[in-house]
Structure to design on (100 residues):
């Protein structure tokens, strides 16, 4: 059964399963409340900026705020507020799907 569950998780991970827009809003709000009204990356503690609209030829900046799974989704972490943190794009990229 262990193996079967693992396969199910992998399939789920492949299908995606990120946070919903309203969860993201909540995640970034919780982060803002925690840092006294401004968003900061939970890992490097640098200020982050709200996600930009996807514009052509505009590179997403490294301090773009992103909702992240603390325990990676691909490792069975759920898309729950409890398993979320607001981090910058750079840390998200560096983190990949490593366990905390
Ligand atoms: Zn960071």
């Amino acid at each position: 059964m262990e193996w079967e569950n693992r396969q199910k998780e992998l399939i789920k991970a492949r299908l995606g399963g990120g946070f919903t827009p309203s969860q993201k809003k909540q995640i970034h709000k919780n982060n803002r409340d925690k840092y006294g009204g401004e968003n900061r990356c939970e890992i490097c503690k640098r200020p982050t900026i709200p996600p930009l609209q996807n514009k052509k030829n505009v590179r997403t900046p490294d301090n773009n705020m992103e909702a992240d799974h603390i325990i990676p989704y691909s490792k069975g972490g759920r898309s729950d507020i409890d398993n979320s943190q607001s981090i910058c794009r750079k840390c998200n990229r560096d983190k990949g799907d490593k366990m905390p």
About this structure: The chain has one domain: 19-51+58-95. Residues 19-51+58-95 form one domain.
